[in-house]
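Translate structure to sequence.
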């Protein structure tokens, strides 16, 4: 199977099985999504969604959060992983949004990454989800799934994985491809015990095919 064929079959499968794949983070506007994505680093979406309602009730927009201290924000996110660092990031992010961008979340990747707490992955999520740009965020799920299936070859970093994926995925499908891969990794191709028997793309998965070959030869 060629790389082109593997991508084509992967895309065809997800278009049929997950035609409306989207983020599981709950939000009402770009600012709330940005906050939620910052909080989601090394934390589950479920925990973030349990935390943000009270946070957004207190600070519904950048202007209100910009007035808060990290210590005040901390009280709302203390159950999140790394709450001290994230409360500082949120306070700084909100202030910079107000001071430099009129309180509005920018759509430019470089401008997004100028915000405290916003790295390339977070910027790509905002760019694709909010602005529908051909940006593909690579988290641990996407990195793992892409490598296992064989969408990437010996990729060592998230950036290498991102570049390989966007090179082969049609531009108009890049925004949804992140959700396809992350949801597949979250519920099917899990880190410790992938559910290969439930996987609709096992027949194109390099790791699955390799394991089957080893079993046959034993």
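Result:
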């Amino acid at each position: 199977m060629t790389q082109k064929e593997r991508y084509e079959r992967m895309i065809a499968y997800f278009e049929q099985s997950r035609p409306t794949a989207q983020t599981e983070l709950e939000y009402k506007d770009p600012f709330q999504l940005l906050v939620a994505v910052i909080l989601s680093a090394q934390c589950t979406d479920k925990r973030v969604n349990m935390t943000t309602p009270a946070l957004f009730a207190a600070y519904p927009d950048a202007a209100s959060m910009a007035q808060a201290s990290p210590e005040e924000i901390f009280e709302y996110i203390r159950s999140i992983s790394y709450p001290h660092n994230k409360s500082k990031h949120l306070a700084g992010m909100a202030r910079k949004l107000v001071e430099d961008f009129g309180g509005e979340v920018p759509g430019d990747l470089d401008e997004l990454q100028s915000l405290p707490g916003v790295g390339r992955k977070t910027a790509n999520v905002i760019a694709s989800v909010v602005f529908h740009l051909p940006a593909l965020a690579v988290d641990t799920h996407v990195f793992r799934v892409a490598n296992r299936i064989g969408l990437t070859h010996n990729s060592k970093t998230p950036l290498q994985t991102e570049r390989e994926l966007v090179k082969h995925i049609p531009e108009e499908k890049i925004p949804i491809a992140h959700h396809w891969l992350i949801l597949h990794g979250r519920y099917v191709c899990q880190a410790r015990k992938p559910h290969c028997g439930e996987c609709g793309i096992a027949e194109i998965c390099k790791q699955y095919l390799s394991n089957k070959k080893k079993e046959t030869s034993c």
